[in-house]
Write the C-alpha cells for this entry.
Amino acid sequence: MFEIRIHSRGGQGGVTAARLLALSAIHDGKYATACPFYGAERRGAPIVSFVRIDDKPIKIYSQIKKPDMVIVLDASVMDVVDVLQGLKTGGKVLINSAHAKEFSGFSSGHVDLTGIALKEKLVVAGSPILNTPVLGALAKMGIISVDSAKVAIREMFSDERNVKAAEAAYKEMKI
Amino acid sequence: MKKIATGNKAVAEAVKQVIPGVVAAYPITPQTEIVEQIAEFVSSGELKSKYIAVESEHSAMAACIGASITGTRTFTATSSHGLLYMHEMTNWAAGARLPIVMANVNRSLGPGWNIWAEHTDALQERDTGWLQVYVSSVQEAYDATLMAFRIAEHNNVLLPVMVNLDGFTLSHIMQPLETVNLGDFIPPLHLAHAIDVTKPTAYGGLTGPDQQFRFRWDIERSMRDSVKVIEETETEFNKRFGRKYGFTEDYCCEDAEVVIVSMGTLGKEAEVAVDLLRKEGIKAGSMRLRWFRPFPKLDLEGKQVVVIDRDYSFGRGGILATEIMAQTREAVFSVIAGIGGQEVTYDDIADFVRNRRIGEEFWFGVSDRV
C-alpha cells in the first residue's frame, strides 16, 4: 500500500487533487481511496487530504499516520504545520516551489505549480489551480502514469489547459 | 467506465437509476451532498422525479408519506438530528406500510455540536418498524440503496428501509464505483392500499383496543417475512451483477476462537486487525453486521465475542452488544469506540482483541488500559 498526505489551504483544491490522484491510480488498474480530513475547515486555513493506492481493495478508513509521500501544494503551510510528521524514512516529498528544498532523510522533488497555473491562466476566484498540474509532477515521480493522469483530468475538467498544465509540470519537475 | 465517487454520490447515483416519483428532503451535514446531487439530477432533467424542497425533516418524512400512499416510489435522506426530528413520522411511515427508502448518514447527536460518525442516531429508530442496513464501502452504499427499493416494495414486506452509511468516513471518502445496468431488477411498485380516487377509503381512522395489536403484529409478521425477501434479493443481485451480500459479512470466522462484531466502516477496518492478529497466532475473525433490523441469527457458538459499538444506550450498554448478549450464551467483551468520529485504527481494534476481558465493558479513550 502506498499512502500519500496532501497539504494545502482551504480553497486551493487539495481535496480535488486527492480525487484526481485516486482516479488516475484506478485508471492504472489499481485500487485507490481519497479522503479529506474534515474538521472546521475554511478558506485559507491549512488542510490535509489523504490518498491510499494498493493492488488490492482497501479496507482501511482511519487516517494516514505514516505516509510514504507528502505533497505540499502551498509551501507557506510549512510555517504552521510539520508537513514531515510521520513520513516514513526515505519517503518522498513533492513541493510546489520554484526552488529546491532539502529535507534530510527524504527524497524531494519540486516544481512551480503556481507559476504553471498562472502561465496557463488557470485561475478560479483569484486562486491558481494547482490540482491538475500536480498530476504531471506525480507522473514524473512514477506514482501514476501520464496517460491515466490525462484521462482523469479530462473526466473532471473540459478545459484542455488543465492537461497542458500537467504536461508542463511533467517537463519542469525537478527531482 | 471506471468511476470514483463518494458514499453520498453513490447513493444519489442509485436513486437516479431507480427513478422515484417523489424525493422530499432537507439538507444536513454530512448528508447534504446526497440531496444536492439529486436536486441537480432533477434540475438538469437527468432524473424525472418530483423534488420537494421542504422546510424541515419532519415535513420531509410527512411529504414522503403523502407521496408514498399514492403508490409512487419515494426517497429521502437525512442524518442525526434530522432523523430524530422525523421520529414521529418514521413511526407513521412504517405503520402505514409505506415502502419509503431513506439514506441516513450516521452522525453523532448533540450536544456537543459534533458532525462525525456514530450509529446512535439510527439505533434510536430501532423500534419504529423500519428495516435497517449498515454499509461499509462506496460500492456497498450504491448496491444497498438499489436493493432497498426492491426489498421495501416487495408485497411480503411493504415496510420502509433505512440505508446507513458512516458520516464523513464513508459519506465523503472517494472510492471506485461500478454502476450496474439495472434492467428489471426492481419491478414496478404496486401498492395495493394506495389512494384511489375512484374508490374512496378512509386512512388513519380511530383504531380501537380490539384492533391496534393486529396492525402491530402485522408489522412484525412482515418483518419476519422480510428475512427471506432480503436473502432472495441479495441472491438475485449477486446472480445479475456479481456482488455478494448477506446479513453479515464474515471474515475468517470459521475456525476463529475470537470474533469481532461491528457495523459500518469499522467492520472493514476490523478485517485488517484480523490479518494482524492471525500473524501473531491469535485465531481471530470479523463478523460485520449488515442488517440490524431484522436482526439475524448470528452463529457465534463456542466463540469469544468482542463487540464494537459506535453507539450507546445510557444506563444499559452498547446497543449492538446488548442485542448480541440477548441472543447468544457466549460472554461478550463490549467495546465502546468511534463515538462522534473518534479515530479507531486497525491497531486499536487488534488491541481490543489482544487485551479482551470477556464479560466486561470498555470505553476506548476513557481509560488508558484496554
Observations:
- Chain A has a mean pLDDT of 93.
- The helical segments of chain A are 14-27, 113-119, 133-140, 146-156, 161-172.
